Amino acid sequence: MGTLSTTNRTRQTLPRVAFSRAHSLALPSYDVSLVFVTEREAKKLNVSLRKKTYVPNVLSYLAGEKHGEIIICPAEAKRQAASFSLSYPDFLLFLFINGLLHLKGRRHSSIMEREERELLARIVSRRT
C-alpha cells in the first residue's frame, strides 16, 4: 500500500478535502507527495519542468517507479473552480485526481475526463 504525504508551502489555510480517499481509489500502490505552492513557485516550476510561462493549476510527474509528485496552486484553483462548475474544495480534489491519473499514465482525453468525473462523484457522494 502506497503513502500520501501533503505539504502546504503557501500561507493559505486549505479546506479539508478527501485526498487520501482519492489516492486509495486511483493509485493505491504509489507513494504520492502532494505539495501546495504559491503562484510564483507554480510558474517557476512550470517553466523549469515544461518550458511553459503561465501559472498552472496542477503539475504532476513521476519521481521513481511507484512514486510521484503532484503540485497544486490553490490561488489558481480558486480562480478557476467556478469555470469548471465546481466548488473550490471539489476543484482541488478534481485537480488531485487529474494528477493521479497522469501519474498512472493517462493522457488528456474524453476517457480520462470521464474517469476524473466518476472518481470525483464517488468521493463527493460519500460526504453527503
Features:
alpha/beta, 128 residues, 4 strands, 4-stranded mixed sheet, 5 helices
Mean pLDDT, as a whole number?
A: 94
Let me know the number of strands.
Answer: 4
Judged by helices, strands and strand pairing, the structural class is alpha/beta
- Beta content comes to 15-25%
Main sheet properties: 4 strands, mixed
Low-confidence stretches: none
Number of helical regions: 5
If you compute it from the alpha carbons, what radius of gyration comes out, rounded to the nearest whole angstrom? 14 Å
Description of the structure:
The protein is built from 5 helices and 4 strands. It is an alpha/beta fold and 128 residues long. It has a 4-stranded mixed β-sheet with strand order 1-2-4-3, sandwiched between helices. Helix 1 packs parallel to helix 4. The radius of gyration is 14 Å and the shape is globular. The model has no long low-confidence stretch (mean pLDDT 94).
Task: Write a compact overview of the structure shown.
With 128 residues, this protein is α/β, with parallel strands linked by helices. It is 48% helix and 19% strand.
List the SSEs and their pairings.
Blueprint: E1 4-8, H1 19-26, E2 31-36, H2 39-50, E3 58-64, E4 67-72, H3 74-80, H4 88-103, H5 110-127
Parallel strand pairs: 1-2, 2-4
Antiparallel strand pairs: 3-4
